[in-house]
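Board notes (copied after class):
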Amino acid sequence: MKVIQDLAQHHGFVGSLFQKFVSDNFAQFKLSDHQIEFYHRYGYLSGIKLLETAQADHLLEELSSIQNSNHPSNSLFYEFNSNESHDPSKVLFHALGAWRTTPGFHDILWNPAFTVPASQLLGGSVRFWHDQLFCKPARHGGVVAWHQDYSYWTRTKPMAHLTCWIALEDANVDNGCLHYVPKSHRWDLLPVTGLAGDMEAIRAVLSPSQCAEFTRHIPIELKKGYATFHHPLLVHGSFENKTERQRRATVINVFRDGVCSDSNDQLLHGVPSIPKGHPMTGTFFPLLLDSNDVSS
């Protein structure tokens, strides 16, 4: 019987997809002061190139393999939903834990084109939280309903998190790209209203002033290999894919080193618990970049 290798045991590159970055030449990936200011003002920063076309193509090949629920490494996923919407006419593939299964999705976490901007936006060292895959098939791709990421992450404190959404192929309005409500990162934490199914469920928990701002949401169209970063309180979602092509993306969620567990239960399925109040460290929450390496 073939032994399943859990790549979570390796903290650093295991393959050659990002081999050219081993030299740790971080300066080329730094954001400008204007970009950092934009992020803090509006709650997001988009149009950041993270992948070359060949790298994105390689990740798509890996994705095609691990989307199969019978893949040998399927048991390593924290969550695996062939269709989170449960409606066959509106399919949303959503899974957490790809970094444990294939070299490409593992090594992208240490890609300095991601970790350097992440460190600047977090204001410190970058530690891994978890990854996600969001895939919408052609013609009947479902929605990701409006939400704030941190509403699902309150089992960790303080709130010092960051999300990076990476287009593995062109994402636009027609095929269900991400949409943001600019400046909504200044809102309070909202209740969870669901991730798939009813796109507009969040309206029930918004104040009149929030509803007015909500109507001014904007699309975040991205070319293949480009990414957008957003604040954990920024309200975002994505509409259906009704085009003749797929819309596939991967997401990396991180937090500033020093964030602690706020629960004695498992933080992710199958991961040993971290006592409440203790820092999030160890095998499943590796340090991706020390901020001292960026500033030096």
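Comment from the instructor: The mean pLDDT is 94. The CA atoms of residues 26 and 198 lie 42 Å apart.
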